[in-house]
Write a structure and sequence with these properties.
By secondary structure, the chain is of the alpha/beta class. The chain has helices at about 5-10, 40-45, 60-75, 85-95, 110-120, 135-140, 165-175, 185-190, 205-210, 245-255, 265-275, 275-295, 315-320, 340-345, 375-380, 395-410, and strands spanning about 80, 100-105, 125-130, 145-150, 175-180, 200-205, 215-220, 300-305, 330-335, 350, 360-365, 390. The chain binds pyridoxal-5'-phosphate.
């Protein structure tokens, strides 16, 4: 049978696991514990000899259904969900790395990931930050103890596009884990597996959930990395099919031991949201393209950063890699305009820190999400004091254009 399309697979995935009473939406299972009539079965579940549930911190049927859907979206081998995107990133790093290991990371990063990597430094895991828009910079930073390369697809807030394909080749040659945070593109716009990613991170809070009413995160094993060659797998997990070792260790160490589990209720909200991901994102990308073009020629805007503009340094790369150019863009204002006043003049657009919502949200980044980083690191990331980042929603474009033209008037 021909492989079905993304939307069809998403909408019908819950029916594949023999749902109770034929329900079309996977039920919300709030139970923490699971009872067994035969105590031997319980032991076999604990020993991994039989599929089943034992305790809510490790597995839950509602969460399993969402994990399977994300594996399907990413065309990966297996997915582990967490309470937030940050939990997925932290748990993946802490379960696969040890003191003395080295990470090469893109310097253009989500602020909290940047902060977390600073914490890792204090646990003896060294992180080198490089301009990952050129794979040569990543190659130059590799050391004998480099275990992981970490990049985002489209970086926040300046929208740099990493040299995703060339970094993938490099990691493959050197047997290094290639971890790609796909949050900004989502599996609808980009498949990290197609560039050789080993692990794919998604903050489900953003485009996949899409409505800004539930937190969640996930890590997907693409199936491309050969875990049999990876020294940091504990002996306990070096059993059976080696392709399961990495994700098993993330599940056991990162989820069971560290405990940032996704709740069933949030999993349900995220699953419902994920059904309309392609529809929402196509619309948001249309709106973002129109607004970015409007800003790029506006006299109140000094600079507009959006991969969909031909002037963007990685426009051609983005065109090759992504189905669309995403729904995030940023602007630097001319000196006569104040970022707070511009935002306060907007009516439809909301001043808010989230992204990937159905509503258009905007934030003065230097004063908020990148404040803690300090002026020097901000300058090195190209973040001006007047910069505003927009996460474009699915509103009627004329209303958004009205907001922008009124707010930016000189
Ligand atoms: C929001 C975000 C995260 C963290 O996700 P949470 O669900 O908020 O913890 C990680 N990476 C990127 C690129 C993000 O935008």
């Amino acid at each position: 049978m021909a492989k079905k399309g993304f939307l069809t697979r998403n909408l019908h995935s819950d029916r594949k696991s023999k749902p109770e009473h034929g329900v079309l939406h996977k039920a919300i299972h709030p139970s923490v514990a699971y009872g067994y009539e035969d105590a031997r079965e319980l032991a076999e579940v604990f020993q991994g000899k039989r599929a089943g549930y034992n305790y809510g911190r490790q597995l839950n049927p509602t969460v399993t259904a969402l994990q399977d859907r994300i594996s399907s979206m990413e065309e990966g081998k297996a997915t582990v969900a967490f309470a937030t995107g940050m939990a997925a990133i932290a748990a993946s790093c802490l379960s696969l790395l040890r003191a003395g290991d080295h990470i090469v990371s893109s310097a253009f990063l989500f602020g909290n990931t940047n902060s977390f990597f600073g914490t890792l430094n204090n646990f003896g895991i060294e992180v080198s930050f490089v301009d990952a828009t050129d794979a040569d910079n990543v190659a130059a930073a590799l050391k004998e103890n480099t275990r992981m390369v970490f990049v985002e697809t489209i970086a926040n807030p300046v929208t740099q596009v990493a040299d995703l394909a060339a970094i993938g080749e490099l990691c493959q040659q050197r047997q290094i884990i290639y971890c790609v945070d796909n949050t900004m593109t989502s599996p609808h716009l980009f498949s990290p597996r197609s560039v050789g990613a080993s692990l794919i991170i998604n903050s489900l809070t953003k485009y996949i959930g899409g409505h800004g009413n539930a937190l969640g995160g996930a890590v997907t094993d693409s199936g491309l990395y050969d875990w049999s060659t990876y020294d940091n797998i504990y002996d306990t997990y070096r059993q059976g099919d080696a392709s399961n070792w990495g994700i098993t260790q993330i599940k056991k160490k990162g989820l069971r031991d560290m405990g940032a589990s996704l709740g069933p209720e949030a999993a349900h909200h995220l699953a419902v949201g994920s059904e309309t991901l392609p529809l929402r994102l196509e619309r948001a990308c249309d709106n973002a393209q129109t607004l970015a073009e409007f800003c790029a020629q506006h006299p109140g805007v000094k600079q507009c950063y959006y991969p969909g503009l031909p002037s963007h340094p990685q426009h051609e790369r983005a065109k090759t890699l992504f189905a669309r150019f995403g729904a995030i863009f940023s602007i630097d204002l001319v000196d006569q305009l104040d970022c707070f006043e511009v935002l306060n003049r907007m009516d439809t657009v909301i001043a808010s820190s989230n992204l990937g919502d159905t509503r258009t949200l905007a934030i003065p980044v230097a004063h908020t999400i990148y404040y803690e980083m300090g002026p020097e690191r901000r300058a090195s990331m190209g973040i001006a004091d007047s910069m505003i980042r927009f996460s474009v929603g699915i509103e009627d474009i004329d209303d958004l254009l009205t907001d922008f033209s009124e707010a930016l008037a000189l």
